[in-house]
């Protein structure tokens, strides 16, 4: 840093504080972002990252503290003003309109009056140049999480901001796509733009970020140069103590173990004109093993999960078999009664009813399987038993919350995910199918969820994990299969799998040719 | 031939107030606000239009008064639901009850008085043409306003950036807020536009349809307009179609009753409702289009975090 440090600072935050009732979400935060740097904001769920960023973007008003933009004190009262200053934001919980097309969504955040067709052309060109291909005419409601995030990123870049705030941007990208994004970010940095980068992937932060600010429980606990730290030392700063590394004991005698979940020739026609058909999927998950399914968002994982969980029952009853019995025609409840448990990707709306309490959500998913415990004579609900079970799950999974039995929507994403996973694990299911187990969950909590999934498998259950997070799949899986365009590759035993091989399969290389493509590339 | 023309003219007159009130409510609902007070705003427009026309002798001043009273009355709803975040359903219902009561009180001295009627269009040479002359160039001014309004709302919602913004607010007010769109301001303007339209529709009743003041003279037309918006899946041209189908079957069954057709009159009276619903359900079979056009945040109060 040179002597005229003040001039180099694009954004400076002094003593920013935000309280909600008795909770101090941000406590006296100091932060500086220099021109042309990628600055990481690290912290666990509930550390105050989102609250801080919302104050910078004008959707929350700070109780006290000052924000300086290019050395000038500013009061950011609304997102419109933040955009005028030159602050762009890519949200983790997307701010898109489902009933509108991608182009219309982008147009809404641009203030110029150019026609939609011009904006669509610009967006398409920009998206391809950054390696994030996008069809501007597609309806957002039809798109996967990953594709929606591309719209958010492109929308932000089209506003040509000076500071770009990215909240967990790579969670839904393939390693190759993430590389392209990093190139983009580096290009933006070389153009003199600044980036505030929120991520829980410490390797990524080490790779691209120049400086890092670490938050814990609403306070700044340190500034550091992530390149000089190790992933473990960064994690220690975030969590306050050492993060337990996930331990995966080798699976024993899996070849002869009983198959608990069998998918046989599962096919499905596309439900809407834009969704992906499933093409002749075969997979066996045996007692004691964890199988991972990798793939870029929107390649049929959602459709596959719906078919396996029974959200959409199949015509062919033998296409899904649970513990040796046909289950293809059964509903979710029917499959649960056979000993299976499911954790869908969307927490609010699928995994939990947002406006209902945690105990009520527990009853909703387990009234059939645990009828004897939760429902008494004459169909009366046993509130005490449900409450006690909810508290047991909360304790087992270390769910952090503001009230004894809050509404699901009141929890942060990571904490709600811990509760939903815990709710299913609490049943000791013999088949567990999880879609994106740790999306948006911080390092400490994610390690906990991953460890419990491995332990469930080792205790004799079959575990199937669909995830876009390759690090996660390599950490927990005994074999990894890849889904591409509705087809599923053969599971690759973890000893033979590499990032490159899986990445190529995710990009659509022929299953048999992955090795060959590697040699020639 | 003359009979046909006369019937077509009465159909247009019956459909016009429904069309105007429904188009106004469509804009309101596209912004994500459910205002069930259409009936109340309409009757306020009717009494205000009649009163101003009667007192000044000018139906044009009556027309302006009808629009103004509907808009002012809707402002009450806007302040309650948007600034104070009250429940939209309950507030809308009480707006209707308040409007019916208040208009009755305001109108006591108008009962039985002769009102001012808006003159029909009369263009020398054109209006006198056979058949099409009276249909195209000889109707009341509000008829022309209703058609122009429908076209203007279609253009506004689907061709302008402001219209896109309004639709986006109806789809997700939280996303719109995150983009820096002033959700509450747009909704205020939409609600006031809807109120002005409902007032105009009420003015049509007391200045054109039956130029006199009768308590409760809207007779449920506000509710029909509300239903039309939903059954038309929030699309303007379908509202137009629905209003005219309703008007046509309504006039048709009146004639059928006059001819003494041996069908219970109650059944005939229910025909307009049935026919409109059947037709609109048939044309909205496309689930995708319906999904795209339904305002997802309809009726939810919006309170930004602070």
Automatic annotation (TrEMBL), chain A:
The keyword tRNA processing does not apply. It is a peripheral membrane protein. Coiled coil: none annotated. One of its GO terms (cellular component) is plasma membrane. Its main location: membrane. Keywords: ATP-binding, Cell membrane, Membrane, Nucleotide-binding, Repeat, Sugar transport, Translocase, Transport. It is found in: Cell membrane. Residues 11-242, 261-510 form the ABC transporter domain. Transmembrane segments: none annotated. CDD domains: ABC_Carb_Monos_I, ABC_Carb_Monos_II. One of its GO terms (molecular function) is ATP binding. Belongs to the ABC transporter superfamily. This is Nucleoside ABC transporter ATP-binding protein.
From TrEMBL, chain B:
GO terms for molecular function: transmembrane transporter activity. The keyword Transmembrane applies. The chain crosses the membrane at residues 6-28, 33-54, 60-82, 89-111, 141-158, 188-210, 216-234, 241-261, 267-283. The keyword Protein biosynthesis does not apply. This is Nucleoside ABC transporter membrane protein. GO terms for cellular component: plasma membrane. It is found in: Cell membrane.
């Amino acid at each position: 840093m040179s002597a005229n440090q003040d001039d180099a600072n694009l954004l400076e935050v002094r003593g920013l504080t935000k309280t909600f009732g008795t909770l101090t979400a941000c406590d006296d935060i100091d932060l500086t972002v220099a021109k042309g740097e990628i600055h990481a904001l690290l912290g666990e769920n509930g550390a105050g990252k989102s609250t801080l960023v919302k104050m910078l973007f004008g959707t929350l008003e700070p109780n006290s503290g000052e924000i300086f933009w290019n050395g000038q004190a500013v009061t950011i009262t609304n997102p419109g003003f933040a955009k005028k200053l030159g602050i762009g934001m890519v949200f983790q919980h997307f701010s898109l309109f489902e009933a509108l097309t991608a182009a219309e969504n982008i147009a809404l955040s641009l203030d110029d009056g150019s026609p939609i067709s011009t904006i669509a052309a610009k967006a398409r060109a920009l998206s391809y140049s950054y390696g994030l291909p996008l069809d501007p005419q597609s309806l957002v409601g039809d798109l996967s999480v990953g594709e929606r995030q591309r719209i958010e990123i492109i929308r932000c870049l089209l506003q040509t901001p000076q500071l770009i705030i990215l909240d967990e941007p790579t969670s839904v990208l393939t390693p190759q796509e993430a590389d392209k994004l990093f190139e983009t970010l580096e290009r933006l940095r070389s153009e003199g733009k600044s980036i505030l980068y929120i991520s829980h992937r410490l390797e990524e932060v080490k790779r691209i970020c120049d400086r890092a600010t670490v938050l814990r429980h609403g306070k700044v606990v340190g500034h550091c140069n992530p390149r000089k730290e190790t992933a473990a030392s960064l994690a220690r700063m975030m969590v306050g103590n050492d993060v337990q590394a996930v331990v995966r004991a080798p699976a024993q005698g899996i070849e002869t173990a009983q198959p608990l979940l069998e998918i046989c020739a599962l096919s499905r026609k596309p439900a809407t004109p834009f969704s992906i058909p499933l093409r002749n999927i075969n997979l066996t998950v045996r007692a004691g093993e964890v199988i991972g399914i990798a793939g870029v968002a929107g390649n049929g994982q959602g459709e596959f999960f719906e078919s396996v969980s029974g959200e959409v029952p199949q015509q062919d009853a033998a296409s899904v078999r649970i513990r040796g019995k046909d289950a293809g025609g059964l509903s979710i409840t029917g499959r649960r009664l056979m000993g299976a448990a499911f954790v869908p990707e969307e927490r609010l709306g699928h995994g939990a009813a947002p406006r209902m309490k945690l105990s009520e959500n527990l009853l909703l998913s387990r009234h059939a399987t645990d009828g004897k415990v939760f429902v008494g004579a004459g169909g009366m609900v046993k509130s005490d038993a449900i409450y006690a079970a909810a508290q047991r799950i909360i304790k087992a999974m270390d769910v952090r919350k503001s009230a004894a039995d809050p509404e699901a929507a009141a929890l942060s994403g990571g904490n709600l995910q811990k509760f939903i996973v815990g709710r299913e694990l609490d049943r000791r299911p013999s088949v567990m199918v999880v879609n994106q187990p740790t999306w948006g969950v911080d390092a400490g909590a994610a390690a906990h969820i991953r460890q419990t999934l491995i332990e469930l498998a080792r205790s004799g259950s079959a575990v199937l994990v669909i995830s876009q997070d390759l690090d996660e799949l390599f950490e927990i899986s005994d074999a990894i299969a890849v889904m591409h365009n509705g087809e599923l590759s053969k599971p690759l035993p973890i000893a033979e799998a590499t990032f490159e091989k899986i990445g190529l399969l995710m990009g659509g290389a022929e299953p048999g040719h992955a090795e060959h493509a590697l040699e020639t590339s | 031939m003359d009979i046909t023309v006369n019937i077509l003219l009465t159909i247009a007159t019956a459909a016009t107030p429904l069309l105007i009130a429904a188009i106004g409510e469509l804009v309101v609902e596209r912004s994500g606000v459910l205002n069930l007070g259409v009936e109340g705003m309409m009757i306020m427009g009717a009494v205000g239009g009649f009163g101003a026309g009667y007192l000044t002798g000018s139906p044009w001043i009556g027309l302006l008064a009808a629009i103004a009273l509907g808009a002012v009355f809707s402002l009450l709803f806007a302040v309650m639901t948007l600034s104070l975040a009250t429940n939209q359903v309950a507030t809308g219902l009480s707006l209707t009850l308040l409007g019916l009561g208040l208009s009755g009180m305001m109108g006591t001295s108008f009962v039985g008085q002769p009102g001012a009627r808006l003159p029909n269009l009369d263009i020398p040479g054109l209006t006198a043409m056979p058949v099409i002359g009276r249909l195209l160039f000889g109707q009341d001014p509000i008829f022309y306003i209703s058609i122009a309004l429908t076209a203007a709302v279609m253009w506004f919602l689907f061709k302008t950036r402001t219209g896109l913004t309004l639709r986006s607010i109806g789809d997700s007010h939280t996303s719109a807020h995150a983009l820096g769109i002033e959700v509450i301001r747009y909704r205020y303007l939409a609600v006031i536009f809807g109120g002005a339209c409902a007032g105009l529709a009420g003015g049509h009743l007391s200045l054109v349809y039956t130029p006199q003041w009768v308590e409760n003279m809207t007779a449920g037309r506000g509710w029909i307009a509300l239903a039309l918006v939903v059954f038309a899946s929030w699309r303007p041209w379908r509202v137009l179609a629905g209003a005219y189908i309703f008007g046509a079957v309504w006039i048709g069954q009146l004639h059928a009753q006059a001819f003494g057709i041996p069908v219970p009159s109650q059944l005939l009276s229910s025909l307009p409702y049935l026919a409109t619903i059947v037709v609109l359900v048939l044309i909205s079979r496309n689930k995708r289009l319906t999904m795209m056009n339904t305002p997802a945040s309809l009726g939810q109060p919006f309170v930004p975090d602070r």
